Amino acid sequence: MMRHMQPLLHLGCEFGLKICSGRKAVLRLQAILLLEDIVPYITRPIDRTQAICISVGTFSWDSVAVRRSSAATEKSDVSALGAMSGRTTATDQEKEKLNPYESSEHQSANVLTNISFQVAKGQLIGVCGQVGSGKTALLLAALGQLHLSSGRVMRDGSCAYVSQEPWILNASLRNNILFGESFDSKRYYETIYRCSLSQDINMLPGGDETEIGERGINLSGGQKQRVALARALYANRDIYLLDDPLSAVDARVGAHIFNRCILQALKHKTVILVTHHVQYLKHCNQVYMMKDGRVCDHGTHEELMDREQDYAVMVKTHSSETGDQSQCVLEEEHLLVGDGESFDPGHDAADREKNRRVSSSSQGSEKLDPRGAEQLTVPEMIQKGSIRFDTYQRYISAAGGYYMALLACLCFLLNVGSTAFSSWWLASWIRAGGGNATVFVNNQTMPSHNINDNPDFPMYQLVYAVTIPVILGTSLLRGLTFTKVTLRASSYLHNKLFKKMMHSPMHFFETTPTGRMQNIFSRDMDEVDVWLPITVESIMQNMWIILFAILFVCLAFPWFIIPLLVLAAIYYVISKVFRVSVRDLKRLENVSRSPIISWVGTTVQGLSTIHAFGKQSDFMARFMKMFDENTTCLYLCCIAMRWLAVRIDTLAGDTSRQQNMSADDVANYYFGLHPPSELLKPLHFGSWFCFLLQMNRL
């Protein structure tokens, strides 16, 4: 009975662990799902000449409800501390010291306070200020990405946004610029020219079809900034929010971009330019000076210089540090624009094609795959066929070699063997009964059937008592040995993988997506650390149990080996078909998981840009497509497991039918239908029957 209750006890423990893990996962999901969404607060202005109008706006990263909840939590913690110390009241000054967040909630939690900001259509607005003064927050407020505490925000027109940290997709350079828009040759090559990308594209091995790695890893900082600017320029929107787009380029390239892109291409657009380069601010229609989340001053460049306040001090300080070099470069570039230098898309495209042919011919006689120069990310290889034997050898070597593996197998053998021996010994003890002892009943001498009268009773009792600590000791030894072996294998493989990753060349990180590396160190290592040891332990345990069960059954009924061999052959065929399908499905599921991780990370990094360009549906559709591909493989794996379970249950039913037939035979023997010499002892039959049930369960 206890032997059959053991799986239920293991199932109960596993069920409890699953419940705890599921509860933690639900709590983590709940924390995200209960986050308050940003309520759309942008409306259209009544005055249609206004592009953006912020009227006495106060903004924060978190909503007021979240801040109050956090303050209430801290307040309860402070009250609890007071109660524990025996004090029930406190002065206002003490409360402020204990909970400074509550007293300064509306001041410190707001990133922008009482902002009044008006931009007329077609104007170029400059925004400047020290680091952390709220310049980026001002652009995010205009995009609707902050929580509005008070005031109003009005905007008329579509937006394009260039973030301070350029966001680059893992796609070709052309697709990064197009960003889902249809290809227009004239507009595309004009965008490349105005963003000073022509020479950079000519240097790429595949031109604008060259794949860009995640986060633009194979581009310089200035190149990434110009690609992000080209994406915004090609989108042809009404309002352009540029967050310091010239910070990563040199003075000459910056002057070219400012004149050709911002002053010329965006001449009739509304542009809000955040910059630390004060030489560009004199060309702006209005300049806003930010300080501590507020607009400390605004006006034209000349007006602000005449006031001789913070703006004038900043301009003079910058001029004294950099001299007139930047201004000379800007004026030189401006003169070139005034001389009538224009863009010829046909000429520019012809030069690019010519340079590409020259670059290809310089490779000599070496033949290159035309797609090889364009594709950067190496597709993840999917192994085909069965798992090779050297894979098992490497795992055994990581676990300590064949000696440690044999030691672990021996521990399992001792544990299962001692358990089987205890069952056999108990059956033999009960079968022996009273031995040769006799008792007097009604003045007659009769053989005793009481095991207490058996002269070998102390020997049976001692052996059976010894088997109990032996079983416990072998169980402990098995657990310690197996844990040590599998832990050593997991640690060795993890350290070797991490060391290999740390010593990989930069080309590896350029060609390997982040999601693939995260998948290796998370899901794949979890398989090695957790699920592989569980599977190996189950296989080794059940293997010895089945061998001992077959041994005892065949000793009792030798003819039972015939149907057993037939069932084993059927099981082998079923398992072979199952392994082929599940193995490939698991490989496909594992490979299809990495792009999901990469895509989620990329999407989170570029949320502001995605919202600004209105591409939420496109990114969601791409995610759902990849998610469906992954879950399809996972669902088919579950279906395959059910397929196997149905057939294994059928085989178990056949085994039960065979054992029932054998039980009928034993009953016939027992009730005298056959000679007593052929009688199978009922206790041996009970042990045999228990082992058969155990085989069916496994």
Which helices and strands occur, and which strands form pairs?
Layout: H1 2-33, E1 42-43, E2 50-60, H2 64-84, H3 92-98, H4 100-103, H5 105-108, E3 110-120, E4 124-129, H6 135-143, E5 147-155, E6 159-162, H7 173-178, H8 185-194, H9 198-203, H10 221-235, E7 239-243, H11 251-265, E8 270-274, E9 286-291, E10 294-299, H12 301-307, H13 310-322, H14 325-338, H15 345-361, H16 389-398, H17 402-432, E11 438-441, E12 444-447, H18 457-502, H19 506-511, H20 514-556, H21 561-605, H22 607-613, H23 616-670, H24 682-697
Parallel strand pairs: 1-5, 4-8, 4-9, 6-7, 7-8
Antiparallel strand pairs: 2-3, 2-5, 9-10, 11-12
Architecture overview:
With about 700 residues, the chain is of the alpha/beta class. Among the domains are: about 165-280 and about 295-355, P-loop containing nucleotide triphosphate hydrolases (Rossmann fold, 3-Layer(aba) Sandwich), CATH 3.40.50; about 385-505; about 545-698, no CATH class. It has helices at about 1-35, 65-85, 90-100, 100-105, 105-110, 135-145, 175-180, 185-195, 200-205, 220-235, 250-265, 300-305, 310-320, 325-340, 345-360, 390-400, 400-430, 455-500, 505-510, 515-555, 560-605, 605-615, 615-670, 680-695, and strands at about 40-45, 50-60, 110-120, 125-130, 145-155, 160, 240-245, 270-275, 285-290, 295-300, 440, 445. The strands form three sheets. A six-stranded mixed beta sheet has the order 6-7-8-4-9-10, sandwiched between helices. It has a four-stranded mixed beta sheet with strand order 1-5-2-3. Strand 9 (about 285-290) and strand 10 form a beta hairpin. This is ABC transmembrane type-1 domain-containing protein. It is found in: Endomembrane system. InterPro entries: AAA+_ATPase, ABC1_TM_dom, ABC1_TM_sf, ABC_transporter-like_ATP-bd, ABC_transporter-like_CS, ABC_transporter_C-like, P-loop_NTPase.
